[in-house]
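Protocol step 4 of 6: record predicted structures for both targets in the notebook before any analysis. Target 1:
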Amino acid sequence: MTTSPEKTDLSQALAEQRELLLITVRGLTDAQAAQRTTVSELTLGGIVKHLAQGEEAWTRIMTKGDGELPDGMLDMGQYRMAEGETLPALLERYAAAARATDEAVAGLPDLGRSVLLPTTPWSPPEPEYWSARRILLHLIRETAQHAGHADIVREALDGANTTARR
């Protein structure tokens, strides 16, 4: 199967944002990854966990298109590194989710495919559809937003920042 230039470009944009996040968490201990450094509840481990869960959920939505709510999509625990979780385990989950997303995107015949979204508390009353392209763009935006959050959390932790660590 030949991958379209659009799929290649969008997948590369997502990969670049993932890489920025991974630079931010490089060299951390589990304790550092679980530490709050700002008034926000966000931690570096929690951000990795949330992005892994987000890729898992949105890839399922994009590929199944059945309108079913993926397990854990609304679980607020996805934003926190729980007792006993380790950063290496969260990073492996994130890597596995990224691989699954990349494979799913490569396997889609068309990014214009219409996908029924699951009903959430913030959904409009009528069924909502997004294209697979819009879902992929959402993943890029979500990853970029949280990579920026991670950079601030890391800088408050020990002064490191992604730009200097590239």
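Target 2:
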Amino acid sequence: MSSLEQLREVLGVPPGAVCGSDFGAVEGSLGVGLPPDVKGMCYLYGDTLISDFIFVLGPKFIAEQSLWVSELVREGHPVIAKAVLPDAGGMLHWGHSVDGDKFFLEHRGGSHWTVSAFRRDWADWYESDETLID
């Protein structure tokens, strides 16, 4: 069983999968190819709120939101000190919480991307070795 199938078992049937949406346009506007697991997760659960807490960005909003956060960082965000796509070498902004946390994927080489987050309540930066689906 793939990780994406396991995730679907945990989260249940997607409330409104965006399977017909095109990630090609998103990748073009961000200037990066995204790994299949990220596109899979965002196809299934993107542009929806999960458990009334985490909003996962999908093809409809991910490029727009990444641009918005990259501008915040360029203007000197006090905690998010790393570039955000579409800036060269930037992280992918893939979601946020209802509490104002911002979730990112950092490219670690090859097709390996790991989760990092700006935690608003603590005003700090968190990095993990976990992939989006993990």
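Step 5 preliminary note on target 2. The chain has a mean pLDDT of 87. The longest helix spans residues 62-74.
Proceed to step 6 after PI sign-off.
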